[in-house]
Write a structure and sequence with these properties.
336 residues, 46% helix, globular
Length: 336
């Protein structure tokens, strides 16, 4: 006490300071280093798929670039329309989806579903990453969505349970499941098939029960969903390039500060790379894998005959969409 008095401090006051200091130290240890925000991203495919690896790359990049201030949860939702709606109203922050159902929300994306619009992967990826593709992503904002970055499914091919498809005549009368996409439906109707739109979540039961004879999807989707178990014949028609897109909720996206928005965009580009790399790998090994699983694969398809048979559909597309835009996509070359 004498020492305390000499220092000009009474014993009760000194004890109070010690208690207060200890309390503050304990509170500091108990408090988190920084507030953490949970973010959800959904997609329609298995974890081991081209969507799955893209979502994981997004999660890892977001959490690394924001030092863990954002934590990303990945969930599966087979109903892509439902996932887009959930992103639009804000019950989740992001979704990776094929563009098939996106046309119901952003009609401008439907032009990408025109058959034989793109020559190959380099053409499709380059055009979508160019100003032409970015202009379409900018259209999402007017529809209450954010078009973050283009991803992909790949070139679509026909499978069915009845016979090989080599020419348009082989499609006549076949009930083919399509996405809920009027551009795809018009194409198959023009080719003599019976297009049957349904959500992807309904596809396998419909194939098992014979509600539809076949479907059309890229090799990565066929492989990752084991469609060989319910389909015998695969024809490499490559009739449509199927993009995918990462969509964001505008309230969340616009609420990010500049640094965090840049981090999320960088993470989205990491997801894009992982997704496309996986599609490339699946394309290279997928056909042989499907053969090993018992599918009969028809590689030689009369592409010219398919294009000629689609002439009435192409005429209709030229009235539905801006012909100049179609030409810009079709004629794109590196540097253009």
């Amino acid at each position: 006490r004498a020492r305390c008095i000499a220092e000009g401090e009474d014993v009760p006051m000194r004890l109070t300071r010690r208690v207060l200091t200890a309390s503050l130290a304990a509170a500091a240890l108990a408090a988190p280093a920084a507030a953490q925000t949970n973010v959800t991203i959904t997609h329609a495919l298995p974890v081991d798929s081209h969507y799955g690896v893209g979502a994981v790359a997004f999660k890892e990049a977001v959490e690394r670039l924001t030092n863990g201030r954002y934590r990303v949860t990945i969930q599966r939702n087979d109903n892509e329309r439902e996932a887009i709606e959930a992103t639009q109203i804000g019950t989740q922050e992001f979704t990776i989806t094929s563009t098939g159902p996106v046309g119901n929300f952003v009609p401008e994306t439907l032009v990408l579903d025109i058959p034989f619009l793109f020559r190959d992967y380099a053409h499709a990826r380059g055009a979508l990453d160019s100003q032409i593709g970015q202009d379409i992503l900018a259209k999402f904002s007017a529809r209450g969505l954010v078009g973050v970055v283009w991803m992909e499914n790949g070139f679509r091919n026909v499978t069915n349970s009845r016979h090989e498809v080599a020419t348009p005549a082989d499609l006549h009368g076949l009930k083919i499941r399509t996405m809920e996409n009027p551009v795809h439906m018009r194409a198959f109707q023009t080719l003599g098939a019976l297009p049957t739109p349904m959500a992807f979540s309904e596809l396998v039961p419909a194939l098992q029960q014979g509600t539809v004879d076949g479907q059309e999807n890229p090799i990565p989707v066929i492989v990752s969903n084991n469609l060989n178990q319910v389909q015998k014949y695969l024809s490499l028609t490559r009739h449509v390039y199927s993009p995918a897109v990462m969509i964001g909720n505008p309230a969340f996206w616009n609420g990010l500060n500049a640094a965090d928005k840049a981090a999320f965009l960088e993470a989205a580009k990491a997801a894009q790379k992982a997704n496309r790399d996986r599609v490339t790998a699946d394309e290279q090994r997928g056909v042989q894998l499907l053969r090993e699983r018992g599918m009969t694969v028809r590689e030689s398809v009369d592409t010219a005959a398919f294009q000629a048979a689609l002439a009435p559909a192409f005429e209709a597309y030229g009235k539905q969409f801006d012909p100049a835009l179609i030409r810009r996509f079709r004629d794109w070359k590196p540097g253009s």
